[in-house]
Amino acid sequence: MESVFDGAAAGIDHLKEQDRSSFFHPFTAIKDQRAGSPIVMARASGCSITDVDGRTYLDGAAGLWCVNVGYGREEISSAIAAQSRELPYFHSFNGISNAPSIALSERLLRLAPAGMKRVFYGSSGSDANDTAVKMLWSYNICRGMPEKRKIISRAYAYHGVSVASGSLSGVPMVHQHFGLPLDFARHVSRPDVYRDAPARQCRSEVEYSALLAREIEDMILAEGPDTVAGFIAEPVMGTGGVLPPPEGYFQAIRAVLDRYDVRLVADEVITGFGRLGAWFGSQLYGMQPDLILTAKGLTSGYLPLSAVLVGDKIWSVFEEASADGRVFAHGFTYSGHPTCAAAAMANLDILEREGLVDRVAEIAPVFARLFRDTLSGLQLVGDIRSAGLMLGVELVADQASKAAFSPALKVAGRVSLAARRRGILVRALPNSDTIALSPPFIVSEAELAALAVGLGEAINDVAVELRAEGHL
Ligand SMILES: Cc1ncc(COP(=O)(O)O)c(C=O)c1O
Question: What secondary structure does DSSP assign to 88-108, as a single string?
């Protein structure tokens, strides 16, 4: 089928003008958008995406960490079309249900780590985080502990942008200009083996993990254990810098949380459904969470859907409270959306049939090696870290001292733009000059090599600019 904008260049220019005059883009500087020429994506297949001007990019980021099975999967599109013809929508309030959501719930509990009892649906990672916050609050109210409602998160973590999830996020730009975070949220240090561990003179990762766990314990004690409901973490921190946990991190934290009756929430919005080479990151790192939050990879981004998996401890309290007539009065118009559930089922079919989770585990060492071999020698590259198909390249002004560039130089942003000019899509993360990669699980070795080479060239392009500007 021809797209509406195929054809005359005048039509494309008009489209771009309409974008500038009507579309309020998320996380976009208005003045830049008004002055620039937007990239308008048109179609995609596999790991490649093409814009209306006919330029094709290799998508090293899988959209926003989500198009895990790749673009152009007819099977998912057909499942969406078929379900939307049969029953496009109905709600799931008051116990009303639909077959795709039932099948998906049963399947998610089968795939999830042991101890998960029920699945609660929404449409985004942010709403999954909000649901988790309200579950923790309600759980403690049901237990007669209404004051136990603070949630500890980590500096620079990204858990979303709604009022509650934005409060859990530790990204300054998500707080500034909104008067956030709300006062239920607290933040401790993120695990940063490259910078923070040596700065604190840790001799091993285990020692660093113990120190970070102690920081959480100190915070719980300072706040008062009776006021702390939960601790939330991604198995591997994504937007906060692509930071895999140091050895023993979650085991050490788990022990602290257990001591003070604090529930653990695993935000697996990025890591769920295979990105780390296991179905869930919680399994890889022995987290034993009480809630698991998922979205993105659940449908590979083909439709919006989130799922909160509820563990035994919390579920049993809700079940008991329900005997006294309590209702968990929370839910969305689109909770249990049948068409989104059908998309998720088709996506999971692909992951299972093609063995893509195992493939991630197999290709992860190749991915890491290719990027190390290609980028390690470059002047701006300070650290390369990875887990599964997530990889971060931290850029520095000086490798020996690890000196960072001035944030005003926006070095990572410039590298991501330079990469785009070379036909490669990667993400510049906020708050550290880190470039993130998270390609689709079907990425070939040749595509990985092209991403590594293209990123290396982009880094060199920016090094040349910085030298010319006198910053190097
Ligand atoms: C770990 C994590 N949690 C939550 C979110 C928020 O998801 P959404 O943008 O769908 O609200 C994101 C988004 O990138 C994320 O990476």
Answer: -----GGG---HHHHHHHHHH
CA 272 / ligand 1 centre spacing (Å): 12
Q: What pLDDT is attached to residue 202?
A: 97
| CATH number for the domain harbouring residue 252 | 3.40.640.10
Q: Which two tokens stand for residue 111?
A: 């795939």
**Interval between CA 124 and ligand 1 midpoint (Å):** 7
* Beta carbons of 433 and 396 less than 8 angstroms apart: yes
Q: Which atom of ligand 1 is nearest to the CA of 127?
A: 11
d(CA 424, CA 374): 15
∠ CA 144-150-155, nearest 5°, is 160
* pLDDT, tens only, 41-95: 999 999 999 999 999 999 999 999 999 999 999 999 999 999 999 999 999 999 9
**Which of 293, 319, 353 lies at the terminal end of a domain, its last residue?**
353
Question: 188 alpha carbon to ligand 1 midpoint, in Å?
Answer: 19
Residue having the nearest C-alpha atom to atom 3 of ligand 1: 159
160 CA distance to ligand 1 centroid (A)?
Answer: 5
- Residue 305 Cβ inside 6 Å of ligand 1? The answer reads no
Mutate to test the pocket of ligand 1, among 236, 292, 296 (most ligand atoms within 8 A of CB): 296
- pLDDT the model gives residue 9: 73
Integer Cα distance of 351 and 400 in angstroms: 42
Ligand 1: atom nearest CA of 306 is: 10
What pLDDT score was predicted for residue 1? 44
Residues of the chain predicted below pLDDT 70: 1-8
d(CA 172, CA 187): 12
Q: What residue type is assigned to position 371 of the chain?
A: F
pTM of the complete model beyond 0.85 = yes
For ligand 1, is residue 248 a contact (CB within 6 Å)?
Answer: no
Q: Give the residue numbers spanning the domain of 454.
A: 39-69+355-468
Confirm whether 363 is domain-assigned: yes
In the reported structure, the alpha carbon of residue 27 is separated from the centroid of ligand 1 by a whole-number distance in angstroms of 13
Both structure tokens of 218? 């100190």
- Same structural domain, 415 and 314: no
Where is the domain boundary, 334, 353, 372? 353
Ligand 1 touching residue 438 (CB < 6 A): no
Q: Is residue 115 within 8 Å of 288, Cβ to Cβ?
A: yes
Question: Tell me, what's the pLDDT at 10?
Answer: 79
- Supply 18's token pair: 């309409």
Average pLDDT over the chain, rounded to an integer:
96
